[in-house]
Amino acid sequence: MEKLIAQIKQGKVWPFPGGIHPPGQKTISNTQAITRLPLPGKLVVPLKQHIGANGQLIVDKGQQVLKGQALTKPIANWSVPVHAPTSGIINDICQMPSAHPSALPELSVIIEPDGQDQWCELAPVTTPSQLSHEQLIDIIHDRGIAGMGGAGFPTYIKADSRKAIEYFIVNAVECEPYITADDVLMREHAADIIAGIEIMQQLLTPTLTIVGIEDNKPEAIAAMQAAAEHNDKIIIQTVPTIYPSGGEKQLIKLLTNKEVPSGGIPADIGVLVQNVGTLFAVHQAVYEGKPLIERVITVTGNTIHKPGNVWALLGTEIKHLLDCQGFSPVPQQRVVMGGPMMGFTLPTVRIGVVKTTNCILAPDHDELAEPGPEKACIRCSACADACPASLLPQQLQWFAKSKEYDKLKEHNLFDCIECGACAYVCPSEIPLVQYYRVAKVEIKEQQAEQVKAERAKERFELRKQRLEREQEARQNRHKRKPAAEKSADEKQKIADALARVKNKPAKGDEKSAVAAAIARAKAKKQNQDTELEPDNSDVALERAARKEQARKYKEQKAASNTAADPDDKKSAVAAAIARAKAKKAAASESDNESTSAPADDKKAAVAAAIARAKAKKAAQAVSVENDNSESEVATASPADNKKAAVAAAIARAKAKKAAPAVSVENDDAESEITTASPADDKKAAVAAAIARAKAKKAAKAEQAASVENDNSESEVTTASPADNKKAAVAAAIARAKAKKLQQEGSDQ
Amino acid sequence: MTLFYALIALGSLALIFGLILGFAAVRFRVQSNPIVEQIDTILPQTQCGQCGYPGCRPYAEAIANGDEINKCPPGGDATVKKLADLMGVDAKPLAGGEQAEPIKTVAYIREDECIGCTKCIQACPVDAIVGATRQMHTVLIDECTGCDLCVEPCPVDCIDMLPVETTKQTWKWQLDAIPVTQID
Amino acid sequence: MKLTMASSPHSHSHKSLSRLMQTVILACIPGLIAQLYLFGTGVLIQLILALVTASLSEAIIMRIRNRPVWSTLSDGSAWLTAVLLALSIPPLAPWWVIVIGSFFAIVIVKQLYGGLGFNLFNPAMAAYVLLLISFPVQMTTWMPVSDLLADRISLTQQLSVIFNGFTSAGFSVDQLRVGVDGVTMATPLDTIKTDIAHGLTVSESMQAAIFNSWLGQGWGWVNLGFLIGGLYLIKAKVINWHIPVGVLASIAVCSAIGYIAAPGTEPGMIFHLFSGATMLGAFFIATDPVSAATTNRGRLIYGALIGLLVYLIRTFGGYPDAMAFAVLLLNMAVPLIDYYTQPRTYGHGVNK
User: CA of C45, closest CA in chain A: separation in Å?
Assistant: First the structure.
């Protein structure tokens, strides 16, 4: 320990294996001072700009926000708020392409700046040394600081490390070519960065703080040394220029000769790494009270007229950055967020800058040539020589191609930091990193699937046991009172195979009364004896817990669902949905009509009529006819009820004609008519009319070939609007389905 | 006489080695899972019954008793291949011309159309649907195996099998599939 | 203007497969010049024959496999194989020897295994061994260096020998090999081996005309040529130093031990290092990336074992030289060597 510190103080560094020397291209952008962009016309602020969970949205569409005002508040661990980068109006809150390689949509707040750039009230602290540990952590948390070097790790979590930190390492290496954001930031704000470092020293109390800077940034080194002179616990260490010395694990090895254990974090070995940009943000958050709403971004590449570094508000669209710096795109233009080694291309320039965006690179084809076609690996192991993690990339590549996931794990695929050094040197131009990334996702997915399969198995077994238990219980009951009907059992509902009539008055709610008339028809013979009634009591608790989870999930998904039903109290919506499906083009048959008479009602009128007809046509065996018809009519007169009245009338007709023969028709028709007369209800009335008709025509061809199987359904629903103060909903749904199934075994 | 010696020598050698082998077989027996267990772990546990058996376990037993290994559409080609390796038979294409790489789906109930009949609940092999009579039902997405057994019993056809949505964690770097735009 | 998506890294070192192969072929030039000077233009004829056959074989196979012909051919790997094979066989061997060899190397050893990158064995060496076993006479009739010949053979004479088997004057290769002193000449390794088998000591054997200047005339120069080319390859970072160092160090150590143990029957370290295919093998053959070990530690072991085998076969085996056998045998051991010499990955095996 003592010896190590002495060595570090002497300026000793411990090179890591591998590494490459790509052309730096830094002088393109680091010669001018940082400029400030004009205010953009629109800001797109994604709610999630870090690793972890979203914050909870606390603003609404149309709301006026001030610069620095929080848009979200942290709700769970690992969630970091985002703030309004300038004052303006929230135009929209919607899904926008995210600053992620996949560009998958992410909930974003869209702000239209008002041009005032008016700050909200800030709470600067002049002497942070007087603040308690918790107060400082809260400031860092509330100001939305997350790692600005690339990963976006929430800074408050790192600063609140439970493990003792011996070495606090400041990552000022910036080893990726082209990027100079940290370089110029250090030149211009060295004193502030040192002040940020001192706040972290106060929080972490490390033995030593080491600032690692590559030797290609002499000005930054000089500035930082001058600024850190007063603090003898800060060492400015110059490290040789080699990519990827700025990788967290590589930098730790380089500066302290320690290695982070595989699968562990630096804190496990008493080391903590922060990026200089983050430390500047910490300074701003504490001394100025400003949340993280802007950052330095290098805009560079041969297609940019004025390459350089700019202060950009978070949420500034890339297009604005490019336009302000002058951009003349070439055909097949790539716009890379990040550096040339680890950055990702953007599918659109309408993506907002986030906390981790350090560079926008718009190269032409001369400086960064498109990769050529992939050739065969000749196992030259240039990749292994370049790998900073001492992996065997060529072996991994073989295994990834043949999907040998166990071998991949054995060869430590998950220790790959995806730095791209291997692909950079590969003479066969194999996109090695791409293979590893895909393999990593697939391995993780496989593991998740295994867990899921295990759980499904468990649940299946439990269900089977439950069903057996119930079966047994029922048999016991039957033994005891063989003649007894199941009427007494509350849980058991009548499951009747042939026909059922229900007449059920729905109860009106105090606020909204919904009268529904449902008529149902079944014509299935299959579910007769072994049908078991659901008994959810066994898993009720488990389900209740998961239900909430399921809901949340669904809420997220809701945006992508197209089916939206306009049930709204305040607005009257009339919707008619007609759907027609035609599979394998068959002539649809059997139309059904249903009419529903509007109800005379003062306040609400509910008219529901459901008519259903089913016609099944099945041909099975040879020339035998079997007629079977039933019909039922059920009528329910409306109930006069103050609160709710539902009238349901169900009429059903069934006609079955079954013929187990070839070329014999088997018709099965059911029809139901349900009429619900309006309920006298003071508060609300909803009129719903559902009419549905199904016509199924099924033909099984087991012995005979080319038998058509027609299946059509049609529904017509008419609903007359209800006179209602508050709402009138009329919904008409018509559905028609025509299915033609022409293969044995493929019918429903 | 030499022939006799030779016979004795070889016979006794055979006897000794036989004894050694027999002893080793008992003494160093490798405790491996019964074959049914091994097959069962390979099967995807969707419990969908598309193989013709009521669940994965019964199908595993059937395979152990010599049934075909290509009857599991949710498992796709990968499962067939693993089964072929385990059983020492040739992998063959899935029966019924199913896709080699099945798209993973989960059931989704259009809740405003649901009439609360509980039929899907009875059909679900893993109890992944919650709801009560005349109450709206919902699918526990995390538990749903995508077996689509609930779709058929639904009297109002309000259950859709939707492909599992891609998240940033499950996105497989299909850069080609991202729609790119013009620089405007 | 449409945006383009690409996977990182977006930068590349601009090393390419064809450049790599070209560099290796270029590095053969010093050795080739030495051979040309010492054995005449026959080497060049063999080289052209090998290149043509290899290109044709590769093109035909690519056509059969429905792969693009030119892009595969232009990676230069087939040409490199052809060059190495041409440099390994006697310059005046009949034309069909090199044709069969090149065809076998490309079609059987390389393409039937799946093409570049998939071959288990070094194509040039596998072909060499096939030829050596199938046509032992043709494959061992190395001409003595031209200085020692009774008559220098002109280019047309060499062509005639290669394609007809005889010069226009009717001399066969064997007759041509008769040196100025009327004794049939062989390679130095061959001579020593035969002599020692006849009970002579090394110093007695060294009296022969073939040894009358530095390292048996010629062969030392050829090896020096390949050494220079090899050093260039290391400098150009085309090959790592591990395999050549492994091979040479192992041969040196073994021959030194042998010399100390039995000075009378051991020609010594320098002789072993600069005879036969030592340098060609160490820098050009054993370093073939496809069939060699891929970890640096593994490469040292791989090289050292090749050196050991070369020495053992040269000293105790039936063949005068052994580079091809040694390389092929070690090719088989590569998966094992690689498996046991994986480098320690970052973060593994460290104390928490």
Answer: 29
How high is the pLDDT of residue A697? 33
Quickly state the pLDDT bin for C222 (edges 50, 70, 90): confident
pLDDT of residue A668: 37
Total number of domains in chain C = 2
Q: Are residues C158 and C306 in the same domain?
A: no
- Contacting residues of A for C17, CB less than 8 Å apart: 375, 378, 427-428
pLDDT tens, position by position, C179-196: 555 555 567 777 777 777
How big is chain C by its Cα radius of gyration, in Å? 22
Residue in B173, B176, B183 closest to C3 by CB: B183
- From the CA of C104, how many Å to the nearest CA of chain A? 20
* B108 and B155 within one domain: yes
What's the confidence (pLDDT) of residue C2?
82
Q: Is there a contact between A549 and B121 if contact means CB atoms under 8 Å apart?
A: no
Across the strands, what pairs with A344? A337
CA atoms within 13 A on the CB side of A733: 19
Angstrom distance (rounded) from CA B69 to CA B92: 8
The DSSP annotation for A169-194 comes to EEEE---SSS--HHHHHHHHHHHHHH
**What are phi and psi for residue A588, nearest 5 degrees?**
-85, 145
Phi-psi region of C18 (alpha: psi -120 to 50; beta: other; left: phi over 0): alpha
Tell me the pLDDT tens digit for each residue of B29-43.
777 678 888 888 888
Structure tokens at C185: 């000449």
The answer to the question of whether B158 is labelled as a binding residue is: no
Q: Under a CB-based contact definition with an 8 Å cutoff, are residues A258 and A271 in contact?
A: yes
Q: Decide if C80 contacts C116 (C-beta within 8 A).
A: no
pLDDT, position C74 = 87
Residues 6+ apart with CB under 8 A from C119: C109, C110, C113, C290, C291
Residue A548 pLDDT greater than 70, yes or no: no
- Residues, chain C, total? 352
- Chain A interface includes C70 (CB < 8 A): no
pLDDT beyond 50 at A584? no
C237 within domain boundaries? yes
Rounded to whole angstroms, the Cα distance separating A711 from A737 reads 7
Residues 87-146 of B with CB under 8 A from A: 96, 110, 112, 115, 117-118, 121-122, 125-128, 130, 132-133, 138-143, 145
Other C-beta atoms closer than 10 Å to the C-beta of B73 total 20
C2 interaction partners in chain B (CB closer than 8 Å): 180-183
pLDDT at A137: 92
Residue C334 phi/psi, 5° resolution?
A: -55, -50
- Flag whether C107 is in a domain: yes
Helix (H, G, I), strand (E, B) or coil at A218: helix
In this prediction the pTM is 0.75
Residues 215-244 of C with CB under 8 A from A: 240
Rounded Cα–Cα distance for residues B54 and B44 (Å): 14
Q: Determine, for residues A103 and B115 on separate chains, whether the beta-carbon distance falls below 8 Å.
A: no
Instruction: Provide the residue type at A569 as one letter.
Output: K
Contact call for C5 and B176, based on CB within 8 A: yes
The domain of B62 spans 35-97
A282 has a pLDDT exceeding 50? yes
Q: List the one residue out of A213, A159, A152 whose CA is nearest residue A182.
A: A213
Instruction: Identify the DSSP state of C166.
Output: B
Residue B110 sits in a domain of what CATH number?
3.30.70.20
Closest chain C residue by Cα to residue A262: C347
Decide if A441 and B183 are in contact by the 8 Å CB cutoff: no
Of B175, B178, B182, the CB nearest to C1: B182
Half-sphere exposure of A626 (CA within 13 A, CB side): 15
3-state secondary structure of A565: coil
- Check whether domain A2-26+128-288 has CATH 3.40.50.11540, yes or no: yes
DSSP-derived 3-state class of residue B24: helix
